Amino acid sequence: MKIKVLFICHGNICRSPMAEFVMKDLVHKAGLADQFFIASAATSTEEIWNGIGNPVYPPAKAELAKHGLSCEGKRAVHLEASDYDKYDYLIGMDSANIRNMCRLFGGDPEDKVSLLLNYAGQARDISDPWYTGDFGATYRDVLAGCEGLLQYLKENELHLFERR
Fold it and tell me: Can you give the CATH number for the domain in which 152 is found?
């Protein structure tokens, strides 16, 4: 059984795809890639036209590439209410994402929704680089959150890693 993680931001072209590919890299380097299904989605449809999502925003893609990560082929997808049942962890980048997720899901009865930086011991939003222009700061926050998330999962989902 795989741990299913969905990262969510507003448009799915900057923060959540950065988190998706950072987390995929971390679990790969830890030898745990076969234990996970990791994806990302948007709370809005602003970056999706006629059912086709825009690719990762070029500066976000360039920031990932600086760290040896490729997001080639990733396109924005919209978060669906049915994703609540499909994923074990639904992780937002900021408090507005969390509000929009809970509105779509009709709440969070199974306590699956969380803020990424909570896993790094920082109860704050990850700034949207679309507005700040600071893709490096966003990458550092995403990396800290994903490292904390992986540590949390190793400690709390241990039964899934024991068969390794």
Answer: 3.40.50.2300
